[in-house]
Amino acid sequence: MDSSIEVTIAELKNVGLASLTLSLMKQTNFDERTVSALKELKERRGVPEEHDSDGAQVVVHREGNTAPNTELQQNNGNSNPTMLLQSQQEQVPRMRQITEPYVPPEIPPIPSLRDVFLTCRRSQPFERHLTESDVRDDLCRLSIAKKHAQMFVLPMLNPEENLQNGIEVTVYDINGSTFNMILRIWASKFHVLTGGWNSFKKAHGLQELRDVVTMWTFRHSSTGKLCFAIIHRSSPLSQTSVRTRRSKRLKQNR
Predict the structure, then answer these.
(1) In b/e form, how buried is each residue of 26-55, taking b as 16+ CB within 10 angstroms?
(2) What are the two backbone dihedrals, phi and then psi, of residue 151, each rounded to the nearest 5 degrees?
(3) Which of 144, 146, 150, 184 minimizes the C-alpha distance to 164?
(4) Distance between CA atoms of 183 and 166, rounded to whole angstroms?
(5) Nearest to 197 by CA among 114, 141, 153, 129
(6) DSSP 8-state code for residue 112
(7) Would you list the DSSP string of 118-157?
(8) Which stretches make up the TF-B3 domain (predicted)?
(9) What count of other Cβ atoms lies within 10 Å of the Cβ of residue 242?
(10) How far is 27 from 153, CA to CA, in rounded Å?
(11) In the prediction, which pLDDT does 149 show?
(12) Full-prediction pTM beyond 0.85?
């Protein structure tokens, strides 16, 4: 290979480190040695520099915004790009948890039900962000959105089952524990799970706004009984909503 165009593994590694570092960091100020090294790498890749109205160098974010370098990061006077990259990489899992949409599995991750779900009749998963009424002890019920009831619950019913009278169901949690509940319709339009819902809610410490429940409706392959599998997760984006809701309550009570 012509030595003039040969690219060593070390150079590729340096280019990758610099590129990933710049793409992950929002605001970082480098010392002169690091700036010179990064400028050289940017020139090799043909990446233009940008400056603000005062002539200060800025970092371009992935979203297209720019921010001046106002924060100083030092390591005894020498900034280390590799250490900076490692620091940013530690934040990546949390960033992905917040930004990437959650896609529930088609089969609930409940080991004791694995064989049952391979042969049973079941619905696609659907989700509900818990509200205040879902966690109130005096109401003792989990609401199911009308569109979810029509798409994922009603098709699983047998002709003789009557929602007005209520249908006894078994609900499984992530551990395979069972809770006896009643599936019924209230006021001719609200589909709810009641009965043992309070026990399920307290067993898992569920809270309004913070928690999202994922649900599957299925017919047990051995008994034919109508069942639900319910698992929950905390939404990382819900804390602001919780604080806003609490703030509004405090203002109303004053």
Answers:
(1) eebbbeeebeeebeebbeeeeeeeeeeeee
(2) -85, -35
(3) 184
(4) 6
(5) 141
(6) G
(7) HHSEEPPPEEEE--HHHH-TTT-EEEE-HHHIIIIIGGG-
(8) 168-234
(9) 14
(10) 49
(11) 95
(12) no
SS3 state of residue 188: coil
Do residues 191 and 183 lie in contact, with contact meaning Cβ atoms separated by under 8 Å?
yes
DSSP 72: B
Q: How far apart are CA 24 and CA 33, in angstroms?
A: 20
What is the rounded distance in angstroms from the CA atom of residue 206 to the CA atom of residue 208?
7
Strand partners, 31: none
Name the token pair of 213: 């429940």
- Say if residues 141 and 166 touch (Cβ distance below 8 Å): no
The SS3 call for residue 248 is: helix
Looking at residue 101, what DSSP letter applies?
P
| Residue 72, pLDDT score | 37
Q: Which residue has tokens 């570092």?
A: 21
pLDDT at res. 188: 73
- Successive 10-residue mean pLDDT values, the chain, 254 residues: 50 63 57 75 61 45 41 46 55 51 89 91 95 94 95 95 95 96 88 96 94 96 95 72 55 62
CB–CB of 180/198 below 8 Å?
no
Which amino acid, residue 25? M
pLDDT score recorded for residue 34: 74
CA dist list (Å): 177 to 7, 26, 116, 181, 214:
58, 45, 15, 13, 16
| CA contacts within 13 A on the Cβ side of 197 | 22
Locate 103 and state its tokens: 């896609």
- Residue identified by tokens 């998963």 is 125
